[in-house]
Amino acid sequence: MEDAISRGSCDDVYQPCEMSYKPGLGYSRYSAALRQLIPVRKTKVEKAAMPVDKVGMLSFTTFSWMTSIMWKAYRKGLKVDDLPRISPLESCEYNARRLEFMWTDEVKRHGLKHASFRRAVWRFIRTRIFVGMSVFVMCLIMGLLGPTVFMRRLLEFAQDEDAPLEEGIWWTVGLIACEVLRVLFFTALWGINYRTGIRLRSACLTVLYRKLMKLPSLGDKSVGQVVNLFANDAQRIFDLCVFGPLIIGGPVIALGGVIYIGLVLGPYALFGMIAFILFYPLQFMLSRITGYLRRRTIVVTDRRVQLMHEILAAIKLIKQYAWEATFVKRITAARSSERSLLQRAAYVQSVSIALAPTVPVISAIITFLCHVGAGYNLTAAQAFAYLALMPIIEISQHCIAYGAPVLAEGLVVLSPMKSILLMEEQQPYVEVPSDVNQAVVLQSATLAWDAVGGDNDSAGAAAKNKDANGDGRGAETEALRPALAIPSRDALIDIDLVVPKGTLVGICGPVGAGKSSLLSAVLGLMRLRSGQVALDGSCAYVGQQPWILNATLKENIRFGHSFDAKRYFTALRACSLHKDVTTLPGGDETEIGERGINLSGGQKQRVALARALYADREIYLLDDPLAAVDSHVGKHIFQEYIKTALKDKTVLFVTHQLQYLSQCDTVCLLKEGRVVESGTHAKLMSDAAEYAALISTYVEEEEQDEAQDGQTDTEVLLEVAQSRSGLGLTEEAVRRASSEVARRRSSHSAEGAHTVKGDATSAGAQLTNAETLEKGAISGRTYKAYIQAGGGFLMASLVMVVFIVNVASAAFSSWWLSHWLEQGSGNTTIEVGNQTMVSDRITDHPRLDFYQLVYGLSVVTILATSLIRGFFFMRVTLAASSRLHDRLFHRVLRAPMALFDTTPVGRLLNLFSRDLDEIDVRLPFTTETFLQNSLMILTSLFFVAMVFPWFLVPLAVIAAVFLFVRAVFSVGVRDLKRLENVTRAPTYSHVITTVNGLATIHAFGKEREFINRFMGQFDDNSSAFYLFNCSMRWVAIRLDSLTVTITALTSVFVLASHGVVPAAFAGLAMAYAAQLSGLFQFTVRLSSETEARFTSVERIDAYTACMAQEAPAVVPSNRPAADWPQAGRVSFSRVCLRYRPELPQVLKNVTFDVHAQEKIGIVGRTGSGIVGRTGSGKSSIGVALFRLVEPEAGRVLVDGVDVSTVGLADLRSRLSIIPQDPVLFLGTVRYNLDPFDHYSDAQVWQALERTHMKQKVAALELQLQAPVLENGENFSVGERQLICMARALLRHSKILLMDEATASIDTETDSLIQTTIREAFSSCTVLTIAHRLNTVLASSRVLVLDAGQVVEFGKPSVLLAHPNSMFAAMVAAANAATGSTGNSQLPAQATDGAPAAPASNGTAGDK
C-alpha cells in the first residue's frame, strides 16, 4: 500500500467525495442518520463501499454488517485491496469543509484573538455527542432496573419457599429483557461515537494539512511537532469523541444508587454511597494530575520525535563524523525526561485503574457495615441485589477512568492545532504588471522572512527556502542548549527590477547576498513590507538544493501532469538525463528514494530541472542549478536547456558560475540584500564598477590557478599544439580535443532518439520495499521479548501474584458476605410476644463483631494490594518500553546506510512516534485492565459453578461458541490492526515530504494535488482504523449475548433450586453472573485489543532483530595509535563496491595510492552509467574510505592500516569530510561546530575566520550561542557549507575528503576558501571531489574515474599533455563551456615532467 500510494500519481490516489457539505440545510442534514432508524433496510451496497450507510437499525446496532468482513478475514485473510472505501460521511473532504466553515464562523464571531477552536470542535460534534449520551443514559437506566428491581424480586422469591413459581418466572423474564436492552443500547453508543470520532479526526487533520499548504513556512513549528500532530494526536482526537462523553455515566449511576439505597436499605446505608461519591473528587484529582503529566509528556515527546527526525534525516553525516555518541546522549536525555513524566503519569493512572473496580466493592462493604451497625437487618435479596448493581457502578468508574484523562488529553491537543490555524497565511502580495510585456516587476520592494530564533543576515541569508529542499519553512527555536529568539531583519531592501517577457536574467552576488530570497519574493513566499511585486505568467521553480519525491523517476519529472512523450524526452535530453535513465535497472520506472537518496547530487539537480521543463511554464526561477553538475554537463544544460528549450521563456537564473553571465540578456548583481548593479554584461563591464571587478577577479584567478601548478586550459593547449610547440601533440589529438564538446553534445542528441527502456521489475528498480505485513497470531517470541524487556519472567510472575492477591481480596469479601448472611442469626432465639423463636436477623448473631471485623479488614487488603499492584505494574511496563526504545534506537543508529537508502524516514519515524506511544501509554493501560478483568471473570464463573454445579454443562456449550467467535474475531482484528499500521506510515511520509517541499509545491501550483493525495491516503487509513474499532464492537455484542445467556441460565437455576439452595448463595451466584454481563465481552475485546497493540511491540522487535548492523565502533584488540594516521597515506587496492547485493558494482577493481600530504582531485563524468547510484564513482570513493558500505573485495589502507580491521568510530573520528549537501543541526552555532566541547572559543573563532564566517557570526546577537534552526534554515546554503568547512578545520584530521564542497559558494569566496584549504590543510592529505575542474587544477594529482574504474591518475600537467587523456578532453569541454580566456603562451612549467600514460584496467598512472 505504501508503495502504491508513494508512487501513484495524485489523480490516481484520490476519488472525489460523493457528497459535499452545504451549511444551513436545517433538519434535512439528519436524513441519512434518521434512515438508519428503520429496523431492516434491504438496499444494494456497492462492493467497494463501506456498508454502514445502507444498513438498518438492527444491523447497525448489532454490527452485523461487519460479519462478511470478519468472515473473509477468518477464511482468507485481509489485504489492503480488501478495505472498503470510507463512507462519504466520514471522508476527509466532507468533514474538513464542515469544520472549516465552523472555524471560519467562529473567527467571524469572536475575532482571531478570542476565537476558540474548542468551541468550533464542540459545534462540529455536539449533536452526535448529545445523541450518544442519551443512548448511554438509556443503557444505564436498563442496567439499574435489572438488579435493583427484577433481580431483587427474584432473590426475594428464592427466600420465600412458599412463593408461587409464576412470580419467579415474571421476574426472570423482566431481568433478561433489561439485560438485552442494556446490551443493545450500549452497542449503539459505540456505533455512534466511533463515527463521530472518525469524522472529527479526518476533519481536524485535513484542515491542518490544508493550512500547511497555505503557509509560506512553519514559523515556530518544527517538522517533528507537525508529524507528531498527525501521528499521536490523531488518536487522541478520536478518543476524545469515543470515551469523553462516557463521563456522564458517573452522575447517573450515583443518582440511581442513592435512590435505591435510600429506599431499600435506609438512610444509614448512605454512608457507603458517600464513600462512592467521595471517590469522584479523588478520581477527578487523579485525572487532572494525569492530564497535567500527559501535557508535559507530549511536549517532551514532540522534542524527542523532532530530534529523531533530525537524526534520521542527517544519519549519513552523523556516521561520517562518528557523532553517534553525541546523539545517543541527546536522545537519552530527552527519553529520560519523557520516561520520568511517563512514570509518574503511569503510576497515577495505574492506581486509578486499580481503584476503579474496588471502589464499588468498598462502597458496598461500608454500606452493609453501616446498615447492620445501625441495627437494621440485611437480607440476601438486599445485599446481592446491591452487589449485582456493582458491574453498572463499575462501568461508571471505567467511564471516569477512561473518559477524564482522554478528555483532558483531547482538549490539550486542540491547543497546538489552534496555534497552527492561527498562523498567518501566505498573503498574496504579488500583482499583475500594468505592462503586458513585463513578466516580473519589483518596484521599491522591501521584503522580509518570518524567521524565528535566529538572526537573518542583512541580505536574506536567513532565507528559509534555501534548505535542502527549497522550501520556505521555519523551525522550532528550542534546542537542547537554550537560545533566545532574535527578531528577523529585512532580507531584500528597496529592490527595483523589471524583467521583460522572454528575457534571461543572470543573478549573481556573494554568499548571503539575497539571491535565493529574490526568487522567493517573486514566488510570493515572503512578507512585503513596502513597494510592489508583480508577476505575469505561471512559474516553475528549481531550488538550490533539489526537492525529490519518493516516487519513480518518471513521476518525479511528470509531477502530476499528464504524460506527453515529446515533452518528456525533450526534458530528458535537455537535462542530459537520457544516458542515466537507460542505465537504471527499471529505466524511468526506477523508484527514487526519499530525498533522492539513490541519486548523485548532479542527478538530483537535473531531475528537478527536467521537472520544471516538463511543466512548460512561462517563468522559470532557477536557483544556482549548475552548481552540482560537471562543467561540461553544465555547459550542455545552459545551452540546450536555458538558451534553447527556454529561449521564449522568462528566466531568472541565479548562479555562482560567472562564465555564463555574458550570455544572459540582463545581469543583476546583489549585495547585502540590495541590487548593486543591473544591466547588460557589456554595459556593466564598461561601467567598470563592482561587477566588472568581480569578473576581472574571476579571470585573474583562473589564470593564476593555471600558472600555480604549471597547467593551462585546453584552449591554450590547442593554440600551442596548432602552432607546433614542443608539446608533442599530434594533429589527431588536436582534432579529438577540439571536437570533444561537439561529440558530447551530439551523443546526447543521438541517445535521445532512442526510447527510454527499463524493466521496472528488475533488480534494483524498486528501491523502497513495501513494509512487511505479518500474518497470523502474535508470536510467542513477541510476548517473550516484551516480558524480558520488562525485567524477565520472575518479575512478570511477581506482578501476576500481586494481581491475583488484589482480585482475590475483593472476591473474598463477597464470599464472606454470603457466608455471613447464610449463617443468619446463628440459631439465636428471641422472644416475640409470649413465644420463643429462632431469629432470622444477622444482627442477633453472637459473633456479629467477628464477621464485621473480617468484612471490614478486607477494605484495607483491597486498598493495599491496589497500590502495590499499581507500583509494580508501572515499573515493569515502563522498563519494557524504555528497553525496547533504547534497543531499537541503538540498532537504528548502528544500521548500515542501506537501511536508510531503502526505508522511508516516515516508516522509521513511525516506530519512534506512534508505535512507541502505543507501548508507552496504551499497551500498559489495556494490558492491566485485561489482566484484572480476566481474573474477575474466572472468579465469577467459579462462584456460579460452586453454587450451581449443573451450570458447567451449558457452560461447555457457551465456551465452544465463545472460542469460535473469538477465533474469527482474533484473526479479523489482527489483520485490521496491521492494515491500519501499514496504511498509516505513508501519511507521515507524505506530510514530511510536503513540509520539506512547500516552496516547490507553491511554485508549481500543486497544492490541490498534494491535498488530494493526503486525503486519499488518510481516507484509506481511516477505513482500516474504523473497521478495526468496529471489529471490537462486533465481537462485543456477540459475547454480551453469551453473558445474557449465562444470566438467564443462572436465573433458571435459581427457579429450579427454589427451596434447595440457600438464598445467600443463590444471590452470590446471581450477582457474579450479572457481573459477567459487559465485563466478559469487554475483557475478550481487551484481549484482542491488547494483542493488536502488541503489533507495535512486534514491529519494533522485528526491526530490532532483523536489522543488519555495521562493524563494531571499536575493536578493543586492534585500536589504532592515538596519533593515527600520522602521515595521511591512502591506498586503494583492487577495491570492488556495490551498494546493495542486487545492484551492480559502483567501484570495479579500483587501485591507486595517495602519498602523505598530497592534494588529490577526483573527477569523473556524471551520468556514466553506474546502476543504482548513477555517476562515475567519485562519491563512492568516500563511501569506501569511511566504510559507509563495506567493499566486497579489495582493501583500503590508511598509513598502512587496513581500515576494515579497526573500529568504525576509531576510523571515522580520525577523518574529516565536507559533504556535498551541508547539514546543520538544531542547536547553536557552537554546538554545530564542536558538539563534544573539545575546543576553546578562541579555536572556534579561528576556524570561522579561516572560512570567512567570523564576521557573519559576530554580527549575531548571541554570536557562538546564536540559535541554528532545524536544517540550518536561518543560514543560506553557502553559509551552511562554510560552517561545515569550519567544522572540518576544527577536527585537525590528517585526511580530508571534500565532496563537491564549494558547489554552493560564489567564485570569489571559493577562491578565498581554496587559499584557506591550501594553508590550513597544507600538512594534510586532501581528496577533493569536484565538478568545477578549476578547483582541482592546483592538485598534486588528479584521479579520473569513469564507470566505476580508474582510467587516469597523474599530475594535471602530465595528463593535459597526453594525447589520449580523458582529463584533457574533460578540461577542453569545460573550457569550451566556460569560454575561458587563456594566455597566448603556455607557461614553461607545463612542459615539466614526462607524459604519463593514462591508467587502464583500474591501474594507476603517474604517481
From TrEMBL:
InterPro entries: AAA+_ATPase, ABC1_TM_dom, ABC1_TM_sf, ABC_transporter-like_ATP-bd, ABC_transporter-like_CS, ABC_transporter_C-like, P-loop_NTPase. The chain crosses the membrane at residues 129-149, 169-192, 240-262, 268-286, 345-368, 793-817, 853-874, 941-965, 1063-1084. It comes from Amphibalanus amphitrite. GO terms for cellular component: endomembrane system; membrane. Pfam families: ABC_membrane, ABC_tran. Residues 1387-1399 have a biased composition (Low complexity). It is a multi-pass membrane protein. Residues 131-393, 798-1092 form the ABC transmembrane type-1 domain. The keyword Thylakoid does not apply. Residues 738-763, 1381-1407 are annotated as: Disordered. It is found in: Endomembrane system. Keywords: ATP-binding, Glycoprotein, Membrane, Nucleotide-binding, Repeat, Transmembrane, Transmembrane helix, Transport. Residues 475-697, 1130-1372 form the ABC transporter domain. Its main location: membrane. Belongs to the ABC transporter superfamily. ABCC family. Conjugate transporter (TC 3.A.1.208) subfamily. CDD domains: ABC_6TM_MRP5_8_9_D1 (cd18592), ABC_6TM_MRP5_8_9_D2 (cd18599), ABCC_MRP_domain1 (cd03250), ABCC_MRP_domain2 (cd03244). GO terms for molecular function: ABC-type transporter activity; ATP binding; ATP hydrolysis activity. This is Multidrug resistance-associated protein 5.
